[in-house]
């Protein structure tokens, strides 16, 4: 099969021919239909997030089940599925209490070692060289994932439309749940990439009264208005704090979502939240990044800072699919570019240059 391999020597991908992997017990082999182009992969390519190499990245995957391993009962060959980037083991101390977004085995095995949960990767080059897997390693014609992270897609929903559910929408829904968003809340989304755009859609669905989108790109701000933003602010040309307070009658927002992962955007989110409000940090920052917080304000004005990483796969992915089937959210409206697998590197280079508005996907040969 063909796979886009990150060798680790520079921020680029190269197409290689490698053997089709085999699923182990509790896993499924998926013929990939589409894979989302995500900033988190780019962080790995730019060495901002440590990860073993050589590796196959790609963690927003939809496709068709090709083979099932032993002990898989809820999936069958031919099922159309979408995958969550967090692959819950189901039996660590966090998974058993329902906190799958903190799954210990996912972080210890996959994110630190690039393996699945028996400590080995399913991917190798033809000469036997192991290839680390970032989540299920979806930038390939086939991938293997624990069955706990694969969810059947309704018949009337297209596979290419739902690929981005597995990280972009999944992470956004997790952030909205972490924020405990309420009908009528005023919110701001700082940075309107794929995750920020999805947060806007969910905030609209929840019934937020004001949805303020903040970015430095007018094209992104124009696009996010069509998805539900009630106000937009270009932070390159406008004083964000003044603008937000003007919109909110001098108060600030109830919830500020930081969706980029930088000290600057974190500071902006903290600055524009109202007394008693919540700052939800969603963006993945380079390792070692820090943000300043006014501790006096944190205490006296009861401001809360909450981290949010992905969501709870077995609760949130079925909910996402129900919302797509019911028309509550439309992930296909956020997809603005489509690339074939042999142009995967072009897609990530365009992402690095800030040229992609919304989300891009890599589509595999049929």
Descriptors for this entry?
366 residues, alpha/beta, Quinone Oxidoreductase, Chain A, domain 1, Rossmann fold, 11 helices, 28% helix, globular
Account of the 3D structure:
This protein is an alpha/beta fold. The chain has two domains: 219 residues, Medium-chain alcohol dehydrogenases, catalytic domain (Quinone Oxidoreductase, Chain A, domain 1, Alpha-Beta Complex), CATH 3.90.180.10; 137 residues, NAD(P)-binding Rossmann-like Domain (Rossmann fold), CATH 3.40.50.720. Helices cover 28% and strands 25% of the residues. It has eleven helices and 18 strands. The strands form three sheets. Strands 3, 5, 6, 9, 10, 17 and 18 form a seven-stranded mixed β-sheet that branches. Helix 4 crosses helix 5 and helix 4 crosses helix 10. The radius of gyration is 20 Å and the shape is globular. The mean pLDDT is 95.
Provide a brief overview of the structure.
The chain is of the alpha/beta class and 366 residues long. The chain contains eleven helices and 18 strands.
Mean of the pLDDT scores? Answer: 95
Q: Determine Rg (CA atoms, Å).
A: 20 Å
- Total helices: the number is 11
CATH superfamily of the largest domain: Medium-chain alcohol dehydrogenases, catalytic domain
Distance between the termini: 13 Å
Q: Tell me the CATH architecture of the largest domain.
A: Alpha-Beta Complex
Principal-axes shape call: globular
What number of domains? 2
Which spans of ≥5 residues are poorly predicted at pLDDT below 50? none
